[in-house]
Amino acid sequence: MSRTADIDFTFQAPVTASLIVRALSEAGWSPAEPRGISYAIQDEDGDLDWSSAPPETLGQIIGALDSPEREQQSIGVSVYHPGAETGGLLLLFPGRREASFTPSINRRSHTVAEEMTDLSWYLEQMLAPLFKIGLLGYTAQDMAD
């Protein structure tokens, strides 16, 4: 049996990948994971097309993700917390008022139930910086598939 854990965020106003990455970086997060920068842009078929690039291309990647022609497409970027050696996928949806984070890089297990994700740790690390940029609310779940 597998599990799916994610945190869905809702913002008061549209946000950009640049704004979220900058806010999370103040709390120790980085778009550069151990293998570089992973990012995604929705293709014509509605699928996310994931790519990787070296960290020095971050400005170009964020520029492409935030370009006006992408506003009605889903986009994604991995975020990583080097101090905690964990991270995951951050997706932004059309309209940019909703985003979702899925712990997927060295996922932190809950201390009481190791098969479950320690979503409270991720929330503790993300809520304050996201609240500063207009976070309205969140929904967190960890479910068996």
Roughly how many Å is the radius of gyration? 15 Å
Going by helix content, strand content and strand pairing, the class is alpha+beta
Helix share, percent: 10-25%
- Uncertain residue segments: none
Order of helices and strands: EHEEEHEEEHE
What integer is the average pLDDT? 93
User: Would you report the number of β strands?
Assistant: 8
| Cα end-to-end separation | 6 Å
Question: Can you count the helices?
Answer: 3
Main sheet specs: 8 strands, antiparallel
Describe this structure in words.
The protein is α+β, with helices and mostly antiparallel strands. 21% of the residues lie in helices and 39% in strands. Strands 1, 2, 3, 4, 5, 6, 7 and 8 form an eight-stranded antiparallel beta sheet that branches. The chain is globular, with a radius of gyration of 15 Å.
